[in-house]
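I'd like us to work through together how a protein chain folds, taking it slowly. We need material for that, and I hope you will provide a protein of your own picking. Go ahead whenever you are ready, and we will take it from there:
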Amino acid sequence: MVVGVVALDPSRASFTSDYRDLAAVAAARGIPALRVTDVNASATVAQLRVWAPDVMFVLGWPQLVHREARDVPRLGAIGTHPTLLPEHRGRHPLIWALVEGRTRGGLTFFRLADGADSGDVVWQRSFDIGILDDAGDLYRRVEALERAGIAELVPALESGTLTSRPQDATRASYRRRRREADGLIDWSAPTLVSYNLIRALARPYPGAHTYHRGRKVIVWRSLLPVASAPPSALGAIAGTVIAKVAGELHVRTGDGHLRLVEIETGGATAIEVGDQLGDPPL
């Protein structure tokens, strides 16, 4: 039985691309909920003590949970991280996995500790990442694993049979928080680099972006070319729109071209063959 939900307050929504108001979800199911901006605030900890949970699952929370809050549940606090820890501790792991072109991802449940994503592992599963997968695909894969993990962990906690293993700190790697500037497409880079960035920032994330005549253009989806750059691309500089085919924009890259399948111009002037995409004007 869920005795309560601590949810991030909507005032913090702009800091979290995949924000959902879990308090509203809980209320619809008759579950007590508390909206907070700080999970470690004294009022939050006091409410946790009132609920007196046996275990606390921390899913997608953007703050470290301090010991005072972690110590409330009788059986401890368990967090999740969408990587195969100790690999890729830190922020935005799904985004970085795609940006880096990784072919394997995963989900880890671990006991919360003082460090970021450093506690003992209690459950871990991997999944493949295909070349056509984007952030939404990985997100759905992680959600399915979270459901499976909780379904296995709760009975193990109840029976006292849950086992854990410490992380090997010598194998730990870290990824920093993504900045808006990291979403700017560099058309002079190889085609695969731009393609990976676009799929990494697909929904529920804010999208990769470029500029057209000083206006920001969001690129939601792209495809790799089925052949090398067409003759019309010869001599074109990176970022030039070299063709429009069946609703797609073909844009010159550092080593070929990329097919833009879904873009959002925000009502800006239509993009035509010969136009230049790239950095905003200074």
User: Anything to note?
Assistant: The two ends are 56 Å apart (CA to CA). The chain has a mean pLDDT of 93.
